[in-house]
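Action item from last week, closing it out:
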Amino acid sequence: MSTFNKVLLVILSAAILVSVGAIIYLLVTPAPANRFTEFYLLNEEGKASDYPAVVHAGMPVTVTLGLINREGKTASYRIDTVSNGTTIQSVSVPGLAQDQKWEGKTSFTLNDPGDNQTVQFYLFMNNDAKPHINDPLLLRLNVVK
């Protein structure tokens, strides 16, 4: 066997060993999971329909907020309810484990009458100053006297 053939055989054998090793590694190493938090808004009865549209000024509005932790680790959360740029309420959700679900009713009051007022629900995780989800959940309300 010539020197060229021996070198070629060594290179080919090394390539086969590296390929087999890579295949075994890919089979035994799980793919990284998508990490996210499910954040949703339900009506007072816990349904994703028939949200309040017209409310009376000074009267409480009740909705249900929900979270499911899919972050791959235990996380705590805070939900800020914001109207006209002002935080009108904060709800803390301590220590949700992976795949754990939380739902809670929350009530807030809007005092100024007006049409098409937006209430925003911002989600924060683990005491971060920046919202965990960029876009807040929105609820548009007409507030009457």
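Closing note: The mean pLDDT is 93.
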